[in-house]
Fold this sequence. Notes:
This protein has helices at residues 5-19, 59-62, 68-85, 103-113; strands spanning 28-33, 38-44, 49-55, 92-94. The chain is of the alpha+beta class. It has a single domain (5-113), classed as Nucleotidyltransferase, domain 5 (2-Layer Sandwich). The longest helix is centred in the middle third of the chain and has 18 residues, at 68-85.
Amino acid sequence: MAFSKNIRRQKIKVSIRSKVNGTPDSPRMSVFRSNKQISIQIIDDVSGKTLVSASSLNKEVIDFKGNKSQKAEKVGELASKKAIDAGITTVVFDRNGFLYHGRVKALAEAARKGGLKF
């Protein structure tokens, strides 16, 4: 019997997390994508704290009229702006088991354009 999408994503996630780890110098940028929303957290895994977060439910993004990929770009820009304000310039990208394609790719490219290095 075939795996469900969620089981497949969890297996990919475990594989990614075995290789990707956030440090205070370069924290982990974790993306979560649901059917309607997308969110991002920049996490220091050593101390176990979220340093910066942004979501498509933030008031700057929720007022924006556009499709889901365009909203993901706005979230990426917002996250990079918040991260740079917090003194974070380099991160490690954690796609969290999602394919690097569509909204995840749009978010990552917008964050790079905003000044984050990964």
